[in-house]
Amino acid sequence: FARLEGSKHAIATSLARVGLYQALLALEMKPGERILMSAVNIPEMTAVVRLLGLEPVFVEWDTGSLFPSVDDLRKKFATVSNQFGRPRVFFSTIVAGQVGDLGGIHDACRELGLVFVQDCTQATLTTYAGKPLGRWADISLFSTCELKFIHAYRGAFVCTEDDDLASRLRQVIGGVLVPQGTAPLVRKWIADTAASVILEPQLFGRVFHHFKNSIFLQDPFDDEPAGVSIAGLSFFESDASQMTTKLPERMVFRASNFEALAGSDSLLRVRDLVDKHKAIASRYREAFSEFGILPETSGEAESSYWRFPILLASPDGAESFLRRMRRRRIVVERTGLSLLSNDVPRTREILSRTVFLPCHAGLNSLDVERVISEVDASRSPSGSPDRENRPENFS
Question: Which residues make Cβ contacts (< 8 Å) with residue 131, sequence separation at least 6?
Fold first, then answer.
């Protein structure tokens, strides 16, 4: 994995959220310290920070992008420094592989003396200015959990270029002696089998997509999704509510040989998988270049595009677009992440207008052209493609 991502060190751990916990321990963060964070991620990342007694301070996205603002990072650093003392860490999340001014973030962190930790769980094999993402941060977190580019059911890597930091990370992570049991894997196999049935195109289109809002989609504006309760059992709920005093034992483990085997096999195929994602994203960019719906990304970045985002004109327009595409049996999503704070109005506004188009390797060229056609049709007042009478943006 280190060779794949161009990192000097890649230390295996159980989950990316656990990797963040272990990284902050290796950095010897103390209770009461403030940590600067980008404001969109899974709620468990905030739970990790609070579990260590740290106080998160959230940094806004850049206008028109899905990436942290260099100006707001500097502003929040100054505010925290004046009120509480200099913060030591900035934890940044790359959403769906979308990379903005990473060079500016890197330079600001160096200037301000911040340790730069980035979440690359949706950005395998992404580069910036010709260099792998891990070269731009002090610590980078990658995931090999289900649905990621490298799929080993569970697992993660903590990457760094710093020998001393790698040694401290190995000491922290190496203290985990709990072996992976079989029960979680059996649950994963059952979930995979159920997903293969539910997501069968004809069955999903006729039955399950009607329930997608309530069952499959995480509400990005709900910090701790409650999940679904059936016969007293909860499904799809967040782990964050259980992370109040310690990490649950089931989240801290050494991977099984089975997971290592599955991950190794997936590792061999990941470049082809990423290339398919990139090809689909390239076709989308070409088709939508004049639509005014592409979020701003850096020309220095070559993304793997975990999902492909479009930025609509208004929250109502985004909701209307979601409903229409689902009626057309095209699986579009808000995001699998959450807004972690209400103190970031610009980020909230951008997220409320963001929709992700399918960009997975299972799509063929006809599928991609159908998505493009339906997006084009959504721009016409009549709901059908009308290349002579397009409004400037989605309404």
Answer: 6
Give residues with Cβ within 8 angstroms of 274, minimum separation 6: 124, 125, 149, 304
Rounded to an integer, what distance in angstroms lies between the CA atom of residue 31 and that of residue 53? 4
pLDDT tens, position by position, 40-54: 999 999 999 999 999
User: Residues of the chain whose pLDDT is less than 50?
Assistant: 216, 225, 382-395
Count of Cβ atoms closer than 10 Å to residue 204 Cβ = 17
In this structure, the chain runs to a length of 395
Number of H helices, E strands in the chain: 13, 16
Number of Cβ atoms within 10 Å of the Cβ of 201: 11
pLDDT digits (tens, 9 = 90+) for 121-159: 999 999 999 999 999 999 999 999 877 899 888 899 999
Contacts of 367 (CB under 8 A, 6+ apart): 358
Question: How far, in Å, CA of 318 to CA of 353, rounded?
Answer: 5
CA distance 156 to 383: 43
